[in-house]
Structures are given as C-alpha cells and as structure tokens.
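Same chain as my last thread, 330 residues:
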Amino acid sequence: MIMTALLCACGTSEARQSSGEQTTEAAGNATAQANTQTALFTQDTTVGEVIHDPAFGDFGRLLFPVDRYISEDMTLADISSSDVYVWYSNIDADKTVEIVNDLKTRAENGEQVFYNIYSDDEIEEDASRADTGFFFFKGDPGAKFAIMNAGGGFMYVGAMHDSFPHALEVSKKGYNAFALIYRPDYAYEDLAQAIAYIYDHAEELQVDKEGYSLWGGSAGARMAAELGNASYGPAYYGRPDIPQAAAVIMQYTGYSDASPQDAPTYACVGTNDGIASWRTMQRRLEALEGYGIPTEFHVYNGLRHGFGLGTGTVAEGWINDAVAFWEAQM
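reply #2:
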C-alpha cells in the first residue's frame, strides 16, 4: 500500500493557440462564438436562470440539491458555499460556473447531457424516482466509463462540488463520466440501477461497458465501495451478468467493512478531517491489501472533510493519481 503526504500544491494548465491567416469565414465563426460566449453563465447568474435555461429542459433543477431548500434568487457565487453544501470545504465558484457552462454548451451542441435511469412506468409507480438520473460528461466514443457519486450525509446530493467536477475532469482525459443524482434514502438501489442502465445502453451511450470504475466522496464513497464489492454489486440487485467494477475511487469516508470480494481501491483523505478519520481509511486499505487486493492511499496534511478536487491545496492533482490507478486495473 502506498501512503503519501503531500505538502505542496501541483497542477497543470493547457494553452490553446491557433496560427495562420484568418479567412473571412473564420472571422465570422469567431464573431459567432464570441456572441455565444455572452450568453454563458457567470458567478452573478442566479440559480433560477440556470434551472430554467432552455438548454436544460425540465431537468435543470437536478443540477442543485433537491433535498434542501435553495432560493432561485441565489447567485452561482452565493450557492458555492458551505452554507449550502454542508460538510464540504474548498468549494470553488469558478468550477461551478465552468460546469454549468460545459453542460449548457454540450446540450446546445446537440448532446444529451441528462438521462433518466427509471422508465416512465417506474416513475409512475414511485414518484420519487423523478428525482434521479445522471448527467453525462461525454469522453471519447467507445472509451471506458466512470460513475461519480457525491456525498451529502445521505441527506442531500452535493453533486456540484463532489461529483460534477470529478466527472468533468475525467471526461477531459477522454473517459466517459456519469454523475449520479440519487435519492438519499435509496442511494444503493439507485446506483445499482444506474450501472445497469449504462450497461444495457452501452452502444447508444458509446461506452465500453467493461472495466468501469465507481467513484465517491463521503456518503458517495460508501456507495462506491459497497456496489464495488462482488457480493453487493450488480449481482446482488439481480444482474449477475454485469461484471464487478475494475476499481473503486473513494474520498473521505469512515467506511470500514473489508472483504476478499472488494474491488481494487484508491482512497484519499485529509489529516484534519473531523468526520472521516484518515486512520480508519488506512486500516481498511491495509485489510484489503492483506487480502491481496491492489490499493493506493494518500493522506493530505491539514485538509478538512470534503475538499473535492482540492484545487489550490496540497491535494491538487490527486485525481490524476486516481485515474492512473484505475488504468492499472483495466
């Protein structure tokens, strides 16, 4: 097992340049693009403006927690706070804006960015299923997929900080990423349903249904760990034809169960996490390693619970390690 304490931040940036003589047609395209940019969201955009944007149809409300009261008059800067996303730290308003703009742009370019995981008949049978589904951050056609599960203490789904950013970054690496919106009271059932939906619609979604990974933070990490276990994964929910996850990527959780049926596991946490002890996470991974299961563990000095991507902290870049771990298990 690898245990790493990072004391400095690291990151990457990309620069895009274009060269050559610009034709009249290209200039027109540039103008059109500039005009499109003026319609994008900013930190001053209200939640209501995002929810009711035509690009999001009738699912815009699921971008934000539906199990907590949120005023539509709040701006994206206002909502990017621990007052809304309780138990979380290092919430980045710029990332919130990037996410909603990415989804808006994809939708306006013809991509389907949201999928219901239950049929109309199933929703009619249980109306709460209307509050489920996943946002699809599309990668390369035919690439493997990951399902991201946000935490929220099984009280709400903190996707804007704890799964959307992860899905966006993983999609930038070419993989297909799905951010699940689940019902806190039926979290495991909804995750099993999402796995089955993607597996059954792999051709339509243009994903490789083998070698998938399950990700999660806090409560979402518990979901990923449990559904990643061969005994409690898709087979437990009546789908023995669906293989076990190739890897589980989990952040800051006190989940301690361990068995020889668990999937290869990457985990990370901060030393100042008052909710999920890093020592508890370390002991679990040591137990998995004892069963011969591949593991990787990182603990970050000074970080609190719910640091998400860790941008601007000593954990920045951890997601690259996690993807590399997943790739090694494929």
